[in-house]
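In this section we walk through a basic example: taking a raw amino acid sequence and producing a predicted 3D structure, encoded as discrete structure tokens. The instruction is simple. Fold the sequence below.
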Amino acid sequence: MILPMWSFEDKAISKGYKYIVGVDEAGRGPLAGPVVSAAVILARNFSCEGLTDSKLLTPLKREKFYSIITEEAVAYSTGVATTEEIENINVLQASLLSMKRAVDNLSTSSDKKISADYILVDGIFPIQSDTIAQEPIIHGDSRSISIAAASIIAKVTRDRIMGELHLQYPCYGFDKHKGYPTKLHKEAIALYGPSPVHRKGFRGVKEFLK
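The resulting token sequence is shown next.
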């Protein structure tokens, strides 16, 4: 039986692929902080009711699913593109770079490296790969269980990074808005000016550069 969230994975399995990895990113829209991507390979018997796009879940649900995924995944990893890289190559290219890094970093829970042979990537753009077949999927984080799992890992990981950045730059409220352009965040930028982790080329930040 083909389940809706497994349809892309099952299609790849029917073609003979074994290690099918879902890839997604978090953090293209914020005014501060890195872009974080995750890559996840799930066993076909993996089951997690309610797993979907991380943006549709509460922080508590995301943390719960994060624990389940990291405990039960065949392999998972993350990849980061820094604020400096976002500024140098633009946020889209930085996102694709972080996705590539996540795929390249794949390993099992025992730190054994594992290579994917098929990539399901969220969005319309493929990542750089000369050897691995891949399939971009629009709204993949709500259509593919592997991409949904990756979206959880990426979002939770990035939120934790922003929590750490809050300790370094507490006046901006990164622990609350995670760098997104909320009213509170924009007011803090106007009052204190951009921090070293703000994206200097983004509207809402560049206006306040000295």
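Looking at the output, two observations stand out. The radius of gyration is 18 Å. The chain has a mean pLDDT of 95. In the next section we compare this with other chains.
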